[in-house]
Records
---
Amino acid sequence: MCERNVLRNMKTISLIGSTGSIGTQTLDVCRKHGIKVNALAANSNTALLEAQAREFSVNAVCIFDKTRYGDMKSRLADTDIKVLSGMDGLCNIAASGEHDLFVNSVVGMVGLLPTLTAINAGTDIALANKETLVAGGQLVMSSAAGKGVRIFPIDSEHSAIFQCLQGNKHEQMKKIILTASGGPFFGKKKKDLENVTVEQALDHPNWSMGNKITIDSATLMNKGLEFIEAHWLFGVAPENIEIVVNRESVLHSAVEFNDNSVIGQMGVPDMKIPIQYAILYPERFECDVKPLSFTDYGTLTFAKPDYETFDCLRSCIEAIKRGGAYPCIVNAVNEEAVRLFLEKKISFLDIGRAVSDSLSAFGHMPADSYEDIEKADRMAREFLKKLFE
Ligand code: MG
């Protein structure tokens, strides 16, 4: 039987964040393998969302920005496609149960409630929204375990770790080796980074991604968020996660087992591989990426990260060690700081300073319920606003 036939009656997905970088690549995978799409959601790009909705003959769309609801509705007036908006719309899709897999590729803390809603509906999740696990790791993982819901990571590092664990006993894993590209400012010191422009920070050497994550990669906040994400996804203590810089982004992460054997997952830096693995798991079908040629690379280099220069990375590790709402706080402060940096209102180094300051500004707060997390998130955003008023 050909690959397409195996899948034809197998999978239907719903996808939120469909017009972003991960979203459009997810639809490339669906197009290639004939995967059905039940519903789509986007923040504001009505034109692309309309085109996607028509191409995949979806049942529903959600435009998150409520001011664009009228536009979206009129665009699809000649179809039977249901048009939703706002957080209610995202959660409506998450709860619908008219899919086998809920793919969450929105950016930021906004992804948490739809994730929790899908878990409550008992739906497996392919997760690209790392803030979901950073802000609500404890709640998300315990809810998922309670409902028997599986979370398939889309982030390339976590997909790598997940792949390394296949066929191995989880409890025999000794350590996670989380790789980092080092970002565009690898080797630089603070004094070199004082006048970094938005354009320089957006110029990533290996990966092509959305703006928020590209800035997070330049500050190494992204690796800090991934450190926290790895802790929750795989239940590994912070002391047993080592960050290693691989400048070429070929080793996507590795796992060291009790016998000191290390299994790593490699490939060219292209998100199609982790996206496809999360959606088609456990199948490995043809994928539209270049094969990896070791001899083209010649050398792979490894280094330790610079925790002195990159405040965000150090702060994230400190936040997960402290526990409670600290990871949620550093995430929220970073989200707001990145927005201000992209608007050219604060400097590049201000992002790290703000994230680091937030750790001393707040006492211990719980993160056991959605209300706890929402409160910490709100307080952290207010803290950041006051900092730069
Ligand atoms: Mg990543």
---
Amino acid sequence: MAEDVEPAADGVRVPRILCIAGTDPSGGAGLLADVKAVAAMGGYGMGVVTAVTVQNTVGVSDVHPVPLETVIAQLDAVADDVEIDAVKIGMLGEAALVHAVGEWLRRRRPPNVILDPVMVATTGGRLASDDAAGMLRDLVPLVDLVTPNVPELAVLCGEETATDIEMIVGQAELVHEQCGSAVLATTGDLADGSSEDVLVETDERWRTTRRLPYVRVDTPHTHGTGCSLSSALATARVGVDDWGAAYERVRPWIDGALQGGLHLGVGRGSGPLDHTWFLHH
Ligand code: PLP
């Protein structure tokens, strides 16, 4: 790994964030969303492509996996050259790649690794085979934070899809107990309309479960919210003490991006967030 660079004169170093994900050519989800979110939070975004999807805001029509060796070669090319401050893992798609990325994490041990256990696109298309979805559970103990939405959380803990916030708390605590990594269960897609995300983490010896209230934005344009939130969290985590502090930095930004998405006018379906909403007022 290259020598670490000196921080700028004011002591602020731009966090270098590696995103591992598929592409969405309409730019709302996947790697393009990741890198926009990283930039919006003040980081330097890098991207390793795992699959090329054919999709727009209406749906996914095709998925072309990048050969496994090429994905790992991309990861090594970056890690050989750049000191990585945080990693965000999104769509992996195939079981063999889930395994290979796990091996890569064991070998390179990057800090602040977030897994967004991507299984299905917001617009409904499958983005992970059944095998891969099952194997994502094995990847969770190798990461620092996992950020499942409601159906992904159910798959990770092998239970029914939660229908209320109490079930979410129970499932998030279960995944944390089983895997050891921090869990941020996002609840934007929870049917009971509650508006609290759930963060479970262990600090020293004490497990804490926190309900993090947010104001629900009434919008159909949520394409890429999971990708964007997890990449923003990876960036915000650098330089703060825990995931709760990172979440506090990210929440106002993601709320603004959801609000801004109402006015973007991108596509006819579930449109994207406005990652740089703060520049558009
Ligand atoms: N990764 C890719 C490549 C995608 O295309 C999508 C959704 O379309 C996702 C991840 C997941 O998106 P979301 O953040 O909306 O869950």
---
Amino acid sequence: MSDCLFCKIVSGEIPSKKVYEDDCCYAFEDIAPVAPVHILFVPKKHIASAAGINSENSEVVSKIYEAIAKVAKEKKLDGGWRVVSNCGADAGQTVFHLHFHLLGGKPLGVMCDD
Ligand code: AMP
Ligand code: ZN
């Protein structure tokens, strides 16, 4: 997608602080962290949101979760961590390229507030 922020980050057109990369996923530090560790994991191929996951492309999700577990271990998030993927406006999704937030490094509190 030519006009997608995270596609531009994956291609290097927009700079990012890379944390992890393999053949199908890319991970980088969130520009506005809400926890001591706040890393975004994205598929290299554009998928707009979790609503776009299907039998053709779902393999990337397990690959991303493998990457998340590896990075969480490397970052020594031994006390626990959280993965969040906002899907759609009501969930607060602001960038419409599927991504998974890895959050950790402090007690994270309750899941949802209004
Ligand atoms: P969401 O609100 O779930 O769509 O998450 C989008 C995330 O992208 C937010 O946490 C932003 O802080 C983050 N973000 C936006 N622009 C950039 C950027 N250029 N580099 C890194 N993270 C970004
Ligand atoms: Zn994209």
---
Amino acid sequence: MKVAFFDTKEYDEIAFKKFMEERNIEIKFFEPKLNIDTVDLAKGYDAVCIFVNDDANEEVINKLYEYGIKAIFLRCAGFNNVDTKACFGKIHVYRVPAYSPYAVAEHAMALYMTNNRRIHKAYNRTREYNFSLAGLTGNDMHGKTVGVIGTGRIGRCFINICQGFGMNVLCYDAFPANDLNYVSLDEIFEKSDIISLHCPLTPETRHLINKDSIKKMKKGVAIINTSRGGLIDAQALLDGIVERKIGSACLDVYEEEAELFYEDKSGHIMNDDTLLKLIAMPNVIITSHQAFLTHEALENIADTTTQNILSFFKGEQGNANELCYHCGNEQNCKKLRKEKCF
Ligand code: NAI
């Protein structure tokens, strides 16, 4: 089992080494992200392991197939960067559906609290012996209304945290459960002081936060996005901030992050005007897709990914972590019948 591992960071190697040795899997760590320019690195391997900003589009999939790649192992939950339809019948796809929903939910709240109470500003001030409080006023969280879009694993952890702060929680999900306070999407937009996104990026959710939805929101609303950048139309967000409609934006993800996030670009001229302006805003806080980054999450990712690799090469049927474009469709989804996708 030889696996080409793309977009490697030092913390990946540390987390994976233990499991590779225990489970006898050969992994070659490559720094570049998988895309059409780097796909040749996969020649001679049985499978590839990729992360959130690798680009497994149809052209890349066809090349991987030509090179004899049998499986793609995503070491993350989201799979919007893999063309699962192009993979069907050719390359099996596995993911890590859950590794630590707490890590992401806690980071979402950390971003909001930092921005709300201006902790990042205060930290810089006191390091320079500036003990002024001017401009550091925040809002009580207790009693405020938070709208949670997507009430899966991470959304639910976030809801628990909000309830601990005494906030009122409104929920929206395309597939609502029966134990939460669900309302329409419009009600979320109209009534929430804070909106936090925890749904996947799909054609339906792309630019869920846009010019029209922002119009419906309360003045001063805070928007938190730790899911995928494409959920927000960044230009509309920026306009909403400039118009003083949006009071706070807390972003761990950005639609055009692929070439920027996870890299040190400090010595470079940035070409993305929208991102530059967002970063310059005093009420915007941005982290570079780090919500997952806890020791517990890294260990769980490495554990589940290497289990997925073993499961695939042993030919196990019905692995719940395998996915294809038929997933969840009762007629076509073989996984529901405990079979392999193809
Ligand atoms: P999950 O699958 O447990 O929950 C997603 C929820 O979204 C489900 O309840 C689902 O019904 C709902 N949903 C699906 N389509 C929807 C729609 N059109 N409108 C509203 N809700 C919809 O996923 P989980 O583990 O909670 O992760 C959520 C997202 O968080 C992932 O899709 C991923 O994009 C992102 N993520 C970000 C990380 C980071 O480091 N920033 C790390 C891990 C995940």
